[in-house]
Write a structure and sequence with these properties.
The structure is a single chain. Helices cover 28% and strands 29% of the residues. The radius of gyration is 24 Å and the shape is globular. By secondary structure, it is an alpha+beta fold. Among the domains are: 80 residues, no CATH class; 110 residues, no CATH class. A hairpin with a 4-residue loop joins β4 and β5. It starts with a helix and ends with a helix.
């Protein structure tokens, strides 16, 4: 079986990769050119990296030590490479390793907002309301502190079906909360009952009519976590890269970050949470904690100040999603940004900005 897997991987990757029986990730390659060249890159699995192999005098990471996950007492092995990527996720050990080996502290900001959500893939069916049946994106966003529960539907792809009541789309459906309010995920029936009590009846009707095509996936206590590695300049060790969630992670209902703009746009609404807690660590290791609500008095932590730009983005984000629910062009732009195929600046182009302002103004004047 192993020989078949090796042959299949070599065939699919056009002889760029091979599978080793005892392997590991991240990916190791002698250079970027080699990374896409014909020299085999080693994909290793069922292992755990335990520490870095470094040359402190040259400020270089040369490799890692790793061992088997299955046998805790197993001996460690060395692996060397000139290009090392840490893509182990938000629970990466890199900050600890860098501190131990280079006395390097990575500046970070963590935003705790009591995030939780339940998401699943479902097939949508008609509910008899054309405004909802014709909408690709449906959103009832969180608007703390008045409303800590939100609902969003984002299409994935079209599907073939013989059911005339089906809308022919497979969608990601998510119920998200902040302020440590948790929707149930033990059964769809309980989730429906909870939704009936906490969301608008229209969204309950959408859920009740939907066909669940995947397990209910919960998330609890997710935080926004940004490591400002770029601020360290030449102090950052050579040949070592943090990738994806290892460097920046946020509310998992969104696609993960690829730019500073994504981080800024995706964390904007989290600043409105009543029990917000922000922890900042600078490059000298000094930690400052800011906390909202009555807890700030008991813990002697000052309340976080919301920048003016964040306040504007909170307003704009809320009305943008309302506009996306009614406009095919705006909803398409939203899907492209969420799927990271376009820059977040697409959501602020003049025509979109004007449409968002119009729908907000119509609401303020009770014209909608």
């Amino acid at each position: 079986m192993t020989e078949m897997q090796i042959a299949l991987i070599r065939l699919i990757t056009q002889d760029k990769y091979t599978l080793q029986s005892f392997a590991n990730f991240p990916l190791f390659s002698r250079s970027l050119r080699d990374f896409w060249g014909r020299r085999y890159n080693r994909l290793k699995c069922n292992t755990r990296a335990t520490e870095l192999i470094v040359d402190k005098s040259l400020n270089v990471v040369k490799g890692i030590k790793y061992r088997s996950k299955q046998n805790i007492g197993s001996p460690s092995f060395d692996m060397y490479g000139d290009f090392i990527i840490d893509c182990t996720g938000r629970y990466t050990s890199s900050p600890n390793w860098l501190n131990e080996n280079f006395n390097l502290i990575v500046p970070t900001i963590q935003i705790h907002f009591g995030c939780s959500y339940v998401t699943f893939i479902g097939e949508r069916f008609r509910i008899g309301d054309s405004s909802f049946d014709s909408a690709l994106v449906i959103s009832n966003p969180v608007d703390s502190p008045e409303k800590n529960v939100g609902f969003i539907v984002i299409p994935i792809r079209t599907i073939k079906t013989n059911n005339e009541n089906s809308l022919g789309t497979s969608s990601t459906i998510a119920i998200n909360c902040v302020n440590s309010e948790y929707p149930p995920n033990d059964s769809y029936e309980n989730l429906l009952e909870w939704t009936k009590e906490n969301l608008d009846p229209k969204y309950y009707t959408i859920l009740k009519a939907a066909k669940v095509c995947s397990p209910l996936i919960p998330s609890r206590h997710a935080i926004d976590d940004r490591k400002y590695v770029e601020s360290l300049g030449k102090k950052w060790p050579q040949n070592y890269i943090l990738l994806g969630d290892s460097m920046c992670s946020f509310n998992p209902q969104y696609a993960q970050v690829i730019s500073e703009e994504c981080w800024f746009a995706s964390t904007t609404n989290d600043w409105k949470t009543p029990t917000l807690k922000v922890i900042e660590t600078d490059k000298y290791g000094q930690v400052k904690t800011y906390q909202r609500d009555g807890n700030s008095t008991s813990t002697n932590n000052p309340e976080p100040r919301i920048p003016i730009m964040i306040r504007f983005m909170q307003w704009y984000g809320y009305w943008f999603l309302q506009c996306a629910s009614k406009s095919a062009d705006v909803s398409t732009a939203f899907v492209r940004v969420v799927n990271q195929s376009r820059s977040p600046s697409l959501l602020m182009k003049p025509t979109t900005f004007f449409a968002v302002c119009c729908i907000a103004l119509m609401n303020y004047l009770n014209l909608s």
